[in-house]
Amino acid sequence: MVWLIPEGRLTPFITLILMWIITLISIYYGKKGKFSVRRIPGLDKIEEAVGRAVEMGKPIFDIIGMGSFTSVYAPQTVAGLSVLGYVSKLCAEKGAKLIAPQAAVDVMPVAVEIVRQSYAEAGKLDELDVDEQLPYLSGTQFAWASGIIGMAARLKPAANVMIGPFWAESMMFAETFARVGAYQVAGTARLYQLPFFAAVADYVLIGEEIFAADAYLTKDPVKIGSLFSQDVYKLIAILLSVIGAILSTAGVKVIVDVLSK
Amino acid sequence: MYKREIPLLITFLSGMVAVLEYYFPTDATKNAFTVLKNWGIVIAAFALGFGAVNLFIVYGRRFRKAPNPVDRVFSIWLLVLLVITALVGVSLSSASDQYQWIYNSIYLPLGATMYASLCFYMTAGAYKVLRAKTLDSTLLLITAFLVILGNTPLSAAIWKGFFSWRMWIFDVIVSGAYRGIRIGVGIGSIVLGIRTLLGMETGYLGRR
Amino acid sequence: MGLEKVGALPRWLVMTIVVVLMAIPLIKPLGILPVISESTMDYYNAIDQLKPGDVVLFDIGFGSGGYPTLGPASIAILRHCFSKDLKVVIMATQQEGAVIYPLIMDKVKPEEVYGAKYGEDYVFLGYIAGVQTAMAAVLGDLHSAAPVDYTGKSIDTLPMMANIKNADDIDVVAYLTTAGEIAEGWVYQAYSRYKKTTCGGWLSMMTPSLKPYYDTGALTGMLDGIRGAAEYEKLIGEPGDAMKTTDILNLTQLWVLILVILGNIAFFAARGKEVS
Q: Which of B33, B201, C250, C254 sits at a 20 to 30 Å CA gap from A45?
C-alpha cells in the first residue's frame, strides 16, 4: 500500500497513524481520570458574561463566525458550536436572552438544533424565538458584518461571545461591541484576526484554545484525554524544531529530508 | 440508533474516504471523493434555498410588525433587491450586463466601503488600546509604533531603517510567534478531526 | 484643558480628521514614492525575466472587499505581462473574481494599449469552484478543469490554449487574494506539487502569517497589500490608484501615531495626577 502514497505524503501518513495511536492511548487514560486541564480564563468568563446579561436585562450575543462545514475552517466552526451549546444552556437556565446570528446556511440548522435542545432541557422551549434569536443574515462577509453591527447598535447587548472563524469583520465586531459597552470573550484560530481580538476583547482564546473549549466546558474525561495528546504532539514538534534547527545549522539535513518524504 | 449511530457511521466513512483519497489517490478513492464533494455541493445549494426562505420569514415578519417605519422600509427593500438580483442572475446569467450593473453599482461599492470602514475601527481601536498600562501593553505599544512607522511610505522615505525594523519584527518576532500558533492550530484541528471521526465530537450533529 | 483630556477626544473629531486626511491627497497628491521592498522586486523580476510567449497563470482571488487594495495590483501585474507579450491565462478562485475581471480589464485595456487579442494572448476561464481542488484540477488538466471560458466558449477553439494543457506549460503562477486558504492553496498546489515559480499578493494584515512561505522560497515573490501594489506601479513606471492610495496611507497612519502619542500622554498625566 505504501507505494501508492505520492511523494511528499509518506511522512504525513505515518505521522497521522502515530497521532491516531497516541490519541487513542490518551483517551484511554483520560477515561481513567489521569489528566486535568489548566484554567483557560476566557472560557471561565463566559458564565460571568451570561450573568452580566441577566443582571443588566440585556441580551448576550454568541457569534460563531462565517465558516461552513465544507470549508477548511470547519473545525473552528465546530468549536464555535460547542461554545454555543454551552452559552445557550446557561442562557436557558439563567434567563438571559441569547442572540446568535447565522451566516452559513449549512451550519444554521445545527446551531438552531443545539439551542433548541438547550432550551428544551431547561424546560423553556416556549421562551425561544428561533427566527428572532438565530436569524440568518447573509453568507457574504460585509452584509453579515453590517447586519451584526446594526443589531449590536440597536440591542446594546451586555456581553458578546465570539468563538469561531472570523475574517476582516472581527475588528468591526470587537470595536462595535466594545463601544456599546459589551463584555467580550473572543477566540479564533484564524491568525490574522487574533491581534484585533487581543487588543479589544476583554478575554481572548488564542488559536487552539478554542478547540479545547468543548473538553474544558463539559469536563468530559475522554475529551480531556485527547487534549493531552495535543500536548504530546506539540512537545514532539518543539523537539523536532530545535533538533532540526541545530542539525540544519550544522549542515546536517536529515530531519528536513525525513519530513519532506 | 438512527439518531446517533447511523450519522456517526456516515461521518466516519465520509471522513475516511477523504483521508484515503489524500494518501492513496487511486481511481477508486478519487471517484468516491468526487462523488462526496458533488453531494456536498448539492446539499449546499439546498441549504442556500433554506437561507433565502429564512430571510423571507424574518424580514417579512419585520416588515409586518416592526414599530419603526424605517425598519419596515429597509426590510421590504432587502426582499425586493433579493428577488430582483435572483431573477436577473437566473434569467440573464451572472455574466450579463444587467447583472454586472447590479454588482458594480450596488454590491461592489458597498463591499468596498465596508472594508474601507475598517480604517475607522482600527483608528478608534489604536487610540483606545495602545496605552502603556502594563508591561504587556507597553510592548504592544512599542511594537505597533515601530510597525506603523515602517509601514508608512513617508517615514520609510525619511529613514529606511524604519522599514528594516518593521521587516525584522515581522521576520523574527511575528513569524516565530505565528508559526508556533499555527502548529498548535494545526494539531488542534487534527485532534478535533480524530475526535469527530471517532464519534466523540458531536457538535456538528446538533448535539452536545 | 488638562492633559488627561487629550486621551478622550470625541470620536466624531477623530473620525472627521481621518476623513479630511483621506481627502487631501485626492485633491492634491503628495507624490511620495514608496521604497521598493525586496519581496515586490522579486515578484516583478519573476515576471520580468520571462520571454515573449511564456505563460503566466493569474488568479483573481478577491472580491469587492479586496478590490481597492488588490485591484490596482492586478492592473499593474497584467500591464506588466502584456507589455512583455506574455500569454496570460486568467482565472478566479473566488466567486466575485469573475465579476471583478471586467473592472480590471477596463483599466488594463489589453487590446487598445498592448495590441493583445483575446484568445490569442489572454483568456479568462471564469470562476472555478473548489479552491485547492480547482487549483489541482487546473494544473493537472486545464482543459478538463475549465472546458469553457467565462463566455461559455470552448477553450479548445482558442488558439493560445492549444499548447497550454497543464502545469508543464505554465511558467509562472501569480495570484492576488484576500483569502488565506487561496494564498496557501497555491503554495501547496503550484509550488509543492509542481515546483512552479509562484508569486502571491494579499492584504497587509495577512503578511505576518504568509511571509514564511516567501522566506523559505516556496513563494518567489510577494506583494504586501496596497504598499506592494504601489511599489509594483513604480517598478513598471505606470503610477495608478495604488500610488494615490499610499498618500492617504501616509497621512492616516501618521494621524494614528499622533493619536497613540496623545493617548499615552493623557494616560500618564492622569496617573501622575492620581499619584500626587
A: B201
Give pLDDT < 50 ranges for chain B: 208
Q: Which of B118, B144, B177 is the last residue of a domain?
A: B118
Same domain, B104 and B143: no
Task: For B70-103, write each residue's pLDDT tens digit.
Answer: 888 998 999 999 999 999 988 988 778 899 899 8
Asked if B176 is an interface residue toward chain A (Cβ–Cβ < 8 A), one would say: no
Residue B110: its chain A contacts at CB < 8 A? 142
- What domain range includes position B181? 128-197
B9 domain residue, yes or no: yes
Residue type, B33: F
Interface test with B, best of C35, C103, C192 (most B CBs within 10 A): C35
Amino acid sitting at position C246: T
- Supply the pTM of this predicted model: 0.82
Give CA–CA dist C176/C71, Å, rounded: 9
B154 touches chain C (CB under 8 A): yes
CATH code, A41-211:
3.40.50
Tens of pLDDT, residues A17-38: 998 899 999 989 988 888 888 8
Q: Are strands C221-224 and C122-127 parallel, antiparallel or unpaired?
A: unpaired
Residue C246 within any structural domain of the chain: no
Check if the beta carbon of residue C207 is closer than 8 Å to that of residue C225. Answer: yes
Tell whether B85 and B132 lie within a shared domain: no
State whether B169 and B113 are in the same domain: no
Q: What is the DSSP string of C72-122?
A: HHHHHHHHHHHHTT-EEEEEESSTTHHHHHHHHHHHH-HHHHH---BTTTE
DSSP state of C204: G
Residue B29 lies in a domain: yes
The answer, yes or no, to whether residue A171 has pLDDT greater than 80, is yes
B42 CB-contact burial (10 Å; exposed 0-12 / middle 13-18 / buried 19+): exposed
pLDDT of residue C221: 96
pLDDT given at position B1? 65
Per-residue confidence (pLDDT) for residue B207, from 0 to 100: 57
Strand partners, C177: C61
Residues A250, A244: Cα–Cα separation, whole Å:
10
Domain extent for C255: 3-28+251-275
Choose from A221-230, A231-240, C45-54 the range with maximum mean pLDDT. Answer: C45-54
Q: How many domains does chain C have?
A: 2
pLDDT of residue A96 exceeding 90, the answer is yes
Question: Domain check: are B101 and B155 in the same one?
Answer: no
Is residue B202 assigned to a domain? no
Q: How many Cβ atoms sit within 10 Å of the Cβ of residue A79?
A: 33
- C-alpha angle A153-B140-A195 in degrees, rounded to nearest 5: 45
Which three three-digit cell numbers place residue A142? Answer: 460585509
Q: Is residue C33 part of a domain?
A: no
Give per-residue pLDDT as tens, A172-190: 999 999 999 999 999 999 8
- Interface predicted TM-score (ipTM): 0.79
- The dihedral through the CA atoms of A63, A67, A69, A72 has a sign that is negative
When scoring B38, B42, B123, B174 by the number of chain C Cβ atoms within 10 A, the one with the most, hence best to mutate, is B123
Distance from CA of C146 to the nearest CA of A (A): 22
Neighbours of chain A (3+ CB pairs under 8 A): B, C
The single residue listed with the C-alpha cell 462523488 is: B35
Sequence-distant (6+) residues with CB within 8 A of A259 are A11, A240, A244
B152-172: buried (b, 16+ CB within 10 Å) or exposed (e) per residue?
A: bbbbbeeeeebbebbbebbee
Average pLDDT, chain A: 90
Measured between beta carbons, the chain B residues lying within 8 angstroms of C68 are: 112, 115-116
